[in-house]
Design brief:
The chain is an alpha+beta fold and about 160 residues long. It has one domain (about 35-150): Protein Transport Mog1p, Chain A (3-Layer(aba) Sandwich). Helix content is about 30%, strand content about 30%. It is built from three helices and seven strands, in the order ααββαβββββ. It has helices at about 5-15, 35-55, 90-105; strands at about 65-75, 75-85, 110-115, 120-125, 130-135, 140-145, 150. Strands 1, 2, 3, 4, 5, 6 and 7 form a seven-stranded antiparallel sheet that branches.
Length: about 160
C-alpha cells in the first residue's frame, strides 16, 4: 500500500483495503495576471451587449435582466448577464428558443443541444459562452465571459 501523504486517506486505505481510492493532486493556482479596471468593465459590458444583440437578432425583447460577477474558483470570476424573455405560452417559448438558436448559428458560433428534460442549448463564441433554456412560458439566455482574476471582491 502506498502513502497518499494525507493521514486521513492513509487511515481510510488501512481500514478499507478493498476500496480503490484515488487522490488527485491539488489544483494549481491560476497564473493569470490580475485584470485592470478597464478589462473588468469591458468584460461586463461585453456580456450585456452580447445578450442584447442576440435578442435583437432573434427579434425578441428582454422582460428582465440580471448582471453579476460569479466566482468560478479561487481568485477567478466570470461576468454573467442573464435575460428572461416572457412569452404567451410554452409553444411561443419554444419558437423564441428556436429563434435564439438560429441567431447564434448566424453568428457562426458553435451550438450544441443538451440532452435534458427541457429544451436547452449552449454555444461558444470564443471568449463568450451562451446558455439558452426554456422554462415553461419563458426563455432564459445567459451570457458568460471568460474568467478573469479580479483584484478583490467583484461589485
Amino acid at each position: 500500500m502506498t502513502s497518499t501523504g494525507d493521514r486521513f486517506f492513509d487511515r481510510l486505505r488501512e481500514l478499507q483495503p478493498d476500496v480503490d481510492l484515488v487522490v488527485l493532486p491539488p489544483i494549481e493556482p491560476d497564473e493569470r495576471p490580475v485584470a485592470d479596471q478597464l478589462t473588468i468593465e469591458t468584460s461586463a459590458e461585453a456580456t450585456a451587449t452580447t445578450a442584447a444583440d442576440l435578442l435583437t437578432a432573434a427579434d425578441l425583447a428582454a422582460t428582465r435582466t440580471w448582471d453579476r460577477w460569479q466566482r468560478t474558483r479561487e481568485g477567478l470570476h466570470t461576468h454573467r448577464t442573464r435575460v428572461r424573455v416572457e412569452r404567451d405560452d410554452e409553444e411561443d417559448a419554444a419558437a423564441a428558443f428556436a429563434a435564439v438558436g438560429a441567431a447564434i448559428l448566424q453568428w457562426g458560433w458553435q451550438l450544441r443541444p443538451i440532452d435534458a428534460p427541457k429544451p436547452w442549448m449552449v454555444a461558444d463564441g470564443g471568449r463568450m459562452h451562451v446558455d439558452v433554456a426554456v422554462e415553461r412560458d419563458h426563455v432564459v439566455v445567459t451570457v458568460t465571459s471568460a474568467p478573469l482574476q479580479l483584484p478583490g471582491r467583484p461589485t
